[in-house]
Design brief:
The termini are far apart. With 386 residues, the protein is mostly beta strands. The longest helix is centred in the N-terminal third of the chain and has 16 residues, at 64-79. It is built from 3 helices and 28 strands. The protein has helices spanning 13-19, 21-24, 64-79; strands at residues 85-90, 95-100, 105-111, 115-120, 126-131, 136-141, 147-151, 156-161, 167-172, 184-189, 194-200, 208-210, 216-220, 224-229, 234-240, 248-250, 256-261, 266-271, 277-282, 287-292, 296-301, 306-311, 317-322, 327-332, 338-343, 348-353, 358-363, 376-382. It has a 4-stranded antiparallel beta sheet with strand order 3-2-1-28, with no helix packed on it.
Length: 386
């Protein structure tokens, strides 16, 4: 079943979220029983191949490097501090909410026309909002609240800030996922808040993330995952994916990509260095967005109203956490202790403790409704402005 929140539809987020109740009521939670082993495939260079990595593969085999990732991520998590604020894109209410992470209280809001993607600079000084209902990204000064628009092209869906804080990438999705759609990623210089270049990728670019060292950016499109060198602003690899990929996350050590395929109901594990698809896991009904804290991967399943917990070491589903209607966005706090889930139909945030994998709080309210004006399309975390 196609998602009520279509990955190529930018101007109809509110209508899609309102209709979601007809699709998620009574949707069965998939029973997960993953067995067998995942066959290896040869390393790829240049354009990666998914040969030998079919969608029916039962689970992935993790390399020694990835096993080390889990332990090093745990060490990094313990050293990291809980962020001061969470930012929630409430596209249905044309606003972004600022939430105090310590108290789960909404402490501010910023306007945006159907803002789907958001990102915060490492200093906590600026919030960038992909204003999907328009042709621009909004730069918001988090000290003064002042906003300025940066024109990037038709219907930007997502934004990401580089680890250095010097660049912002914005996916310009356009109004059509076919040949007439956009295929651009706009590069924004944060010093001037101007577009300095455009990078051509596949049709209908969706989500974008940077590697932890900032040397690469990964973009999901209608035809695959594009890998960009940030030093040259050029595509250096294409990882074909005919299953219409959407969400993407990078492991804390940068060695592994996780990509959701909502229509196929799968999660791909990709070796970031080689571009090789190392595993495919069944991930429930309409897996839309994904995040990881290093030891576990969390996948928001839109049509089962749940979050799957998948071991980064074994690729097996270790739990399913019930949340509210139409979970469409998900993000882990930098210290890895919490995962926030944006519930598109109910317009709330489910806060999950990664220590127990249980929902410990639900954030709602704000705007003029008891819900976060629905369609909670993105979540980002940042420190207090320095």
């Amino acid at each position: 079943m196609a998602s009520p929140f279509q990955r190529y539809s930018r101007a109809t987020v509110v209508a899609g979220a309102a209709a979601a109740g007809l699709l998620v009521i009574g949707a069965p939670v998939t029973a997960f029983a993953l067995t067998g082993t995942f066959s290896s495939a040869s390393s790829a260079s240049g354009t990666a191949s998914a040969s030998g990595n079919g969608e029916g593969a039962p689970h992935w085999v993790i390399s020694k490097q990835a096993v080390k990732q889990a332990s090093s991520a745990s060490a990094a998590s313990s050293a990291a501090a809980l962020p001061a604020y969470g930012y929630v894109a409430a596209a249905g209410g044309d606003e972004v909410l600022k939430v105090n992470v310590a108290t789960d209280a909404i402490v501010g809001e910023y306007g945006a026309d159907t803002g789907e993607g958001i990102a915060v600079t490492p200093s906590g000084s600026t919030l960038y909002i992909a204003q999907t209902g328009q042709y621009s990204v909004i730069a918001t000064n988090l000290t003064t609240g002042a906003q300025s628009e940066i024109e990037v092209g038709a219907y930007p869906q997502d934004v990401a800030v580089s680890p250095s804080g010097s660049l912002v990438y914005a996916t310009v999705t356009g109004g059509d996922s076919g040949p007439g759609g956009s295929d651009q990623v706009a590069v924004i210089d944060t010093a001037t808040n101007t577009v300095t270049s455009d990078i051509t990728v596949g049709n209908a670019p969706r989500q974008v993330v940077f590697s932890p060292d900032g040397s690469r950016a990964y973009v999901t499109t209608s035809t695959g995952i594009y890998v960009i060198s940030t030093a040259t602003s050029k595509v250096v690899r294409v990882i074909p994916d005919a299953s219409d990929p959407q969400g993407v996350a990078v492991s804390p050590d940068g060695s592994t990509l996780y990509v959701t395929n909502p229509d196929a109901g799968t999660l791909w594990q990709i070796n970031a260095a080689s571009g090789r698809v190392e595993g495919v896991a069944q991930a429930g009904a309409e897996p839309y967005s994904v995040t990881t804290n290093g030891s576990a991967v969390y996948v928001a399943d839109e049509n089962s109203n749940s979050v799957d917990v998948i071991s980064a070491k074994t690729g097996r589903v270790t739990g399913s956490i019930a949340v509210q209607g139409l979970p469409m966005s998900i993000a882990a706090t930098p210290d890895g202790s919490q995962v926030w889930v944006g519930n598109g139909y109910t317009g709330s945030i489910s806060v999950i403790s990664t220590a127990t994998n249980t929902v410990t709080d639900t954030i709602s309210g704000g705007g003029q409704a008891t819900a976060l004006n629905a369609a909670t399309t993105a979540i980002a975390f940042g420190p207090a402005a320095s």
